[in-house]
Automatic annotation (TrEMBL), chain A:
GO terms for biological process: phosphate ion transmembrane transport. This is Phosphate transport system permease protein PstA. SUPFAM superfamilies: MetI-like. It comes from Lutimaribacter saemankumensis. The keyword Metal-binding does not apply. Belongs to the binding-protein-dependent transport system permease family. CysTW subfamily. Keywords: Cell membrane, Membrane, Transmembrane, Transmembrane helix, Transport. Signal peptide: none annotated. It is a multi-pass membrane protein.
TrEMBL record, chain B:
GO terms for cellular component: plasma membrane. This is Phosphate transport system ATP-binding protein. Keywords: ATP-binding, Cell membrane, Membrane, Nucleotide-binding, Phosphate transport, Translocase, Transport. One of its GO terms (biological process) is phosphate ion transmembrane transport. Residues 18-260 form the ABC transporter domain. PROSITE patterns: ABC_TRANSPORTER_1, ABC_TRANSPORTER_2. It comes from Lutimaribacter saemankumensis. The lineage of its organism: Bacteria, Pseudomonadati, Pseudomonadota, Alphaproteobacteria, Rhodobacterales.
Length: 453, 265
């Protein structure tokens, strides 16, 4: 080594092939291309985010209303002369009194309240209160009395559901202009509502029964809830999970690890990929033909819905399971075989645990897809008016007619009353919460299984 | 250059462990192994040398039927272990592989703890009746793999978290834990530093007391140091097979000579 090599280059030396301090034309062009690409990418992300924000704000602003409901508090005198004529407190007798027996008591209670507050109003009879109170309020009071007959003869404080129009007025959905053409309610009633709201008799509160309740008839949107169809969805998901996970994983393991690679397995493979792209309505009509018309399973039952959704979910699970099995390095299989493990031991002891995060993610995404699926349910009658209450027991849950969350939302969106429109949005919020939860579970499971190594 | 050879002159006459006759291997239409006849002696280290792609690994994998896992691979001819044809339809390759263990070119520990890596084989073969016995097997194997001192305090740590060389010694320990009769090693030292290599070579020499060891290597020195028999492969043919000292000092075939002197390969 000479000294010259160690001393810094003198300034009069010029690099042979151009200075590093000057960008040459090619480098400039490449850098410009890269900068352009970054801008494209960034704008794509921004556009996507904007859409997401718009979507979420729309859903939230339209849907939060459904989680609030207007209630009227009133002290109802449960008149024994009307509710239990014989006075024996015999539950059978009490049950004979229908909601029509209760309606006048409730109207009277509210009318008394108005008189007591001294509100000035041209409405001068208890019957005029009808427009303010939900038709289902009587049913709620009656249920309470049947559950607890000792209440008869007492004056009991009730939080009664307000009529849908009153609810809409409080939420700003029903305006005075619109009321002019409305036969359900008029301006005098709205004046009374204003006064009662001032007095704290009418107020908005959290709407638990929207989450837990059943669907209601076209004319009683204030009572409709998503609870029963949530149960329907739940039972369907149980069926889907119980069938598609074992079948899908077993099929993928067989195809990926054990099946000979020949024309037949190639055809099967292509068909599975194609099945994943088949429109879901096709599965619906298949379910109608096979499960209902041929096998005579009950219509509108979560069992059938679950079977149809299983058909739909299977390809998703098989494809993702096979992909994650493929991603396990072959050296692991060699290692297991090398110490004398059988094929099956190598798969179940080594390959499957490594593929687990992928399998679980695929399964949960498949389930989430199935949970949001509507079209096939329309064909097997899992959409419609299910106002009955909860199925009585686990077995009933699978075979009793029910709806599902997305089908219920579709049903509400179809109805004419704008109050139902609000509930459809609210239902979508609940559905999204479920989907988000499932995705979070998928992520957590993934982390948990991956963090082991 | 090959002084070490002289120290290994005394090769005892031992019985044949594996005998291969007229072996052909095809990958689809490619004829990867052609007419190979070889006798692998018991309690001996046999080295397979030859240029890259000549079929050393392929032939090695025939000896414990690992080639069964490659769909397009077809093996013809007769390979006997202790006089029994290992390609007989009655033979379960799983049983065979318990007798003929293998260490692969790339370290491939299971993504499990160091302990479980070693214990897996003994467990599935039912070699330990209780935890204490298993612990003993694991310790013995790790000691023989020349890695015990480095891992004895972290047996619960993942095997994949070790360095490349440690992983390879772990794999060797895993292979000896099941007490195979034959140990096949495909370039076991290609990821190791000289110190670890020396340890593995020492281990191989020790294993020779009980087992038959077949090692594929690209290092002439290593072949000369550890083996008593050497087989030279070239383009799928077994060109020359004989005592290591003989091959390295006085090869018969000109191809062998040019390979070991560095002219082909
Ligand atoms: N899975 C396979 N499919 C098709 N051809 C293969 C396969 N494995 C090996 N071959 C071919 O068989 C021939 C022998 O390969 P092999 O791996 O046995 O060589 P090798 O001697 O071990 O080489 P190296 O020293 O580089 O490891 C090569 O021509 C290779 O291309
Ligand atoms: Mg090789």
């Amino acid at each position: 080594m000479t000294d010259a090599a160690n001393t810094p280059a003198p300034s009069d030396m010029t690099p042979a092939k151009g200075s590093l301090h000057v960008l040459d034309a090619r480098t400039k062009k490449r850098n410009a291309a890269e900068a352009r690409f970054r801008i494209y990418g960034l704008s794509a992300v921004v556009i996507g985010l904007v859409f997401l924000v718009v979507l979420l704000t729309t859903i939230l602003s339209n849907g939060v209303g459904a989680f609030q409901q207007t209630f009227i508090s009133a002290q109802v005198y449960l008149d024994p002369a009307k509710l239990d004529k014989k006075g024996e407190r015999d539950i059978e007798d009490i049950k004979k009194v229908s909601t029509f027996g209760y309606t006048p008591l409730i109207q009277q209670a509210l009318f008394d309240k108005v008189q007591e507050l001294g509100v000035e109003t041209p409405l001068d009879s208890a019957k005029d209160m009808k427009a303010l109170i939900s038709a289902s309020a009587a049913a709620i009071v009656r249920d309470e009395v049947i559950a607890n007959p000792d209440l008869i003869g007492q004056t009991v404080e009730f939080r009664l559901l307000a009529a849908s129009r009153v609810d809409g007025y409080l939420k700003g959905r029903v305006t005075r202009e619109a009321v002019a053409r409305d036969k359900n309610i008029d301006a005098e009633h709205l004046d009374l509502v204003d006064a009662l709201r001032e007095a704290g008799v009418i107020a908005k509160g959290f709407n638990l029964s929207f989450i837990t309740g059943a669907d209601a008839s076209e004319s009683r949107p204030e009572q409709a809830g998503l609870g029963v169809s949530m149960l329907g969805s739940f039972f369907m998901m149980l069926v889907v999970l119980a069938l598609s996970l074992p079948i899908g994983v077993a099929a993928s393991i067989y195809l990926e690890e054990f099946a000979p690679k020949n024309r037949l397995t190639d055809i099967i493979e292509v068909n599975i990929s194609n099945l994943a792209a088949v429109p879901s309505i096709v599965f619906g009509i298949l379910g109608l033909a096979v499960f209902i018309q041929f096998m005579h399973l009950p219509q509108s039952a979560p069992l059938v819905g679950g079977l149809v959704l299983t058909l739909m979910t299977l390809p998703t699970i098989i494809i993702s399971t096979r992909a994650s099995l493929k991603a396990v390095p072959p050296s692991i299989r060699d290692a297991a075989l090398g110490v004398g493990a059988s094929k099956m031991q190598s798969v179940f002891h080594h390959v499957l645990p490594l593929a687990m995060p992928g399998i679980l993610t695929g399964t949960i995404i498949g389930l989430a897809q199935a949970l949001g699926e509507t079209a096939p349910l329309l064909l097997i009658g899992m959409v419609g008016y299910i106002a009955t209450n909860y199925p009585d027991g686990l077995a009933g849950g699978f075979v009793d007619p029910n709806s599902a969350m997305p089908a219920q939302i579709y049903e509400w969106a179809k109805r004419a009353d704008p109050a139902y429109y609000e509930r459809a949005w609210g239902g979508i919020i609940i559905l999204l919460v479920f989907l988000m939860t499932m995705n979070i579970i998928a992520i957590l499971l993934r982390r948990r299984f991956e963090r082991r190594w | 250059m090959y002084d070490a050879v002289n120290t290994e002159q005394s090769v005892q006459q031992t019985e044949t462990k594996i005998s291969a006759r007229n072996v052909q291997v095809y990958y689809g239409d490619t004829h990867a192994i052609k007419d190979v006849d070889v006798d692998i002696a018991d309690k001996t280290v046999t080295a397979f040398i030859g240029p890259s792609g000549c079929g050393k690994s392929t032939f090695l994998r025939c000896l414990n039927r690992m080639n069964d896992t490659i769909d397009i691979c077809r093996v013809e001819g007769r390979i006997e272990l202790d006089g029994e044809d290992i390609y007989d339809p009655k033979v379960d390759p799983v049983q065979l592989r318990a007798k003929v263990g293998m260490v692969f070119q790339k370290p491939n520990p299971f993504p499990k703890s160091i302990y479980d890596n070693i214990a897996y084989g003994p467990r599935i073969h039912g070699m330990a009746r209780n935890k204490a016995e298993l612990d003993e097997i694991v310790e013995r194997a790790l000691r023989r793999g020349a890695i015990w001192d480095e891992v004895k305090d972290r047996l619960d740590a993942p095997g994949t978290g070790l360095s490349g060389g440690q992983q390879q010694r772990l794999c060797i320990a895993r292979a000896v834990a099941t007490e195979p009769e034959v140990l096949l090693m495909d370039e076991p030292c290609s990821a190791l530093d000289p110190i670890a290599t020396a340890q593995v070579e020492e281990l191989i020499d020790e294993l020779r007391q009980n087992y038959s060891v077949v090692i594929v290597t690209h290092s002439m020195q290593q072949a000369a140091r550890v083996s008593q028999k050497t087989a030279f492969f070239h383009l799928g043919n077994l060109v020359e097979f004989g005592d290591t000292s003989q091959i390295f000092t006085n090869p018969e075939d000109p191809r062998t000579e040019s390979y070991i002197t560095g002219r082909i390969g």
